[in-house]
């Protein structure tokens, strides 16, 4: 949210833009609204340097239904001072995906330097009960 808020503060009057945590009521974590429209951001964070993200079936469905406004942010290396942040747009649209590395306050398009490997599996969860 800090990244998006900083970016908006540089470009817009914050009365005409907003960044909101919607993780408890939507299939994504952050809603960003500005003069360009609305972005839906799913954030996956990891302590180690792990550039992988698990997406639930409902998150996948939402991403496909909203592919022109859906972003996935992978935030890795959280246990260290320097986090690694990748922003991925149209992540499940082969040939259309865009990947950006966030470096400080700048973003670099690294789409042509790396690729995304997708493995499809159905996720299952379990609970231990007494």
Largest sheet: 7 strands, mixed
The CATH C-level class name: Alpha Beta
Share of β-strand residues: 25-35%
Mean pLDDT: 85
Oligomer: single chain
Helix content: 10-25%
Q: CATH topology, which one?
A: Trna Endonuclease, Chain: A, domain 1
Net shape: globular
Number of self-contained structural domains? 1
- Low-confidence regions: none
CATH architecture: 3-Layer(aba) Sandwich
**Would you count the extended β strands for me?**
7
H-E string: HEEEHEEEE
| Separation, N- and C-terminal Cα atoms | 39 Å
Q: In terms of structural class, how would the helical and strand content be classed?
A: alpha+beta
Structural Rg = 16 Å
Number of helices: 2
Describe the protein:
With 130 residues, this protein is an alpha+beta fold. The protein has a single domain (2-109), classed as Trna Endonuclease, Chain: A, domain 1. 15% of the residues lie in helices and 32% in strands. The protein has helices spanning 2-11, 57-65; strands spanning 18-21, 30-34, 37-45, 70-76, 84-89, 98-103, 106-109. It has a 7-stranded mixed β-sheet, with helices on both faces. The mean pLDDT is 85.
